[in-house]
Write a structure and sequence with these properties.
By secondary structure, this protein is α/β, with parallel strands linked by helices. The chain has a single domain (about 5-330), classed as TIM Barrel (Alpha-Beta Barrel). Helices cover about 45% and strands about 15% of the residues. The chain contains 16 helices and 8 strands. The chain has helices at about 5-15, 30-35, 55-70, 75-90, 105-110, 115-120, 145-150, 175-185, 200-210, 225-235, 240-245, 260-265, 275-280, 280-295, 295-310, 315-330; strands at about 15-25, 95-100, 130-135, 160-165, 190-195, 215, 235-240, 265-270. The protein has an 8-stranded parallel sheet with strand order 1-2-3-4-5-6-7-8. Helix 1 crosses helix 14 (about 280-295), helix 4 (about 75-90) runs parallel beside helix 6 (about 115-120) and helix 15 runs antiparallel to helix 16. The two termini are about 15 Å apart. Keywords: Hydrolase, Metal-binding, Zinc. One of its GO terms (biological process) is hypoxanthine salvage. Its cofactor is Zn(2+). InterPro entries: A_deaminase_dom (IPR001365), Ado/ade_deaminase (IPR006330), Metal_Hydrolase (IPR032466).
Length: about 325
């Protein structure tokens, strides 16, 4: 069933939703920066315009870091930003979140990683379940970070790990042992792949790192055997459509691979990635999928259900939210 207008708006607001691909530094509420220094951070910077497209990943990364490091200079600043961010998620009827913080901020700002982690978790409201992921870059095994990264599996309060950043860099030898130890410790093991890198990076994520949670993965369609494998093995792609458009992974959203992935049986979830840079929220993502890619009410609901089905919520909570989605489908 096609959705439009008030019916679409009401439906996407009412369905319980998840965010499973979200970077804390990239989700810094921009109004916090504007309120701190309106001269340096104008109300409507050019890169947050709906029509703006980033020339490439490096330019995007530079803007993100140039803004994030101004704010995130202490554990307390993480708590303050996350309090605003999480409260807004509740208002959008988001119930479950997997969000990563950039582990290398430990080195940048000289704050203990466990203090940052505690500050994030202490900002979580009772209406929201949040799992915190430690994100690292492919060339980040510095003298300072080595002992930290090697011991992430022992951080009981850390829910998972992720490899992000410049995807075209080679996978270094230190990485697979960390993924293996964290997987054995029961943590979520993710990997950014198949965004600016091709299918070979997705193969690397699933075969070398043992990840079945792929962040993006949208270029998997360039290898039909890979798509069959993702579908057959039950891998999950945490897709961020508007991010892909803004970063010109595809010429436009209408050219996105999501429809092909879904039709091939690949499990996908929908998230926002870096709202600081893209000026988007989860409602914008669902609106765009309906209005510009023709996803139906049932398909939008399935994206939401996928997020819960593959979450770390307990079985009762999963069933509750999935049942609520099913009820809204027939109302």
């Amino acid at each position: 069933m096609a959705l439009e207008g008030d019916e679409l708006e009401a439906f996407i607001r009412r369905i319980p939703k998840t965010e499973t691909h979200l970077h804390i530094e990239g989700a810094l509420p921009y109004d916090l920066l504007h309120g701190m220094d309106s001269g340096r951070f104008p109300a409507n910077p050019h890169f947050r315009s709906p029509s703006y497209r980033y020339p490439g990943f490096v330019e995007f990364e530079n803007i993100l870091l140039d803004h994030a490091v101004v704010w995130f200079n202490s554990a307390e600043r993480y708590h303050e930003a996350c309090k605003v961010m999480f409260d807004r998620m509740v208002s959008l009827n988001i119930k479950y979140v997997e969000t990563s913080f950039h582990l290398h901020m430990i080195e940048f700002i000289g704050v203990d990683g466990r203090d940052i982690l505690s500050a994030i978790k202490s900002a979580v409201p009772k209406e929201l379940e949040v799992k915190v992921i430690g994100g690292m870059v492919r060339n980040g095994y510095s003298e300072k970070m080595q002992p930290i990264l090697d011991n992430l599996h022992s951080w009981e309060e850390l829910d998972g790990i992720d490899l992000h950043g410049q995807e075209w860099l080679e996978l270094e030898n230190w990485t697979p042992p960390i993924w293996e130890k964290c997987r054995e410790a029961g943590k979520i093991v993710k990997c950014h792949a198949g965004e600016f890198g091709g299918p070979n990076k997705v193969y690397e994520a699933i075969d070398t790192l043992g990840s079945r949670r792929i962040q993006h993965g949208v270029r998997s369609v360039e290898d039909k055997e890979l798509v069959k494998r993702l579908a057959g093995e039950g891998a999950v792609l945490d897709v961020c459509p508007l991010s892909n458009e803004k970063l010109q992974v595809f010429p436009s959203l209408e050219d996105h691979s999501l429809r092909e992935l879904v039709d091939a049986g690949v499990t996908c979830t929908i998230s926002t990635d870096d709202p600081l840079c893209f000026s988007n929220d989860i409602l914008d993502e669902y609106r765009a999928l309906a209005a510009r890619l023709g996803f139906t009410k049932a398909e939008l609901a399935q994206f939401a259900k996928n997020g819960f089905e593959h979450s770390r919520l307990d079985g009762e909570a999963k069933r509750k939210f999935i049942s609520e989605i099913d009820s809204l489908l027939v109302s």
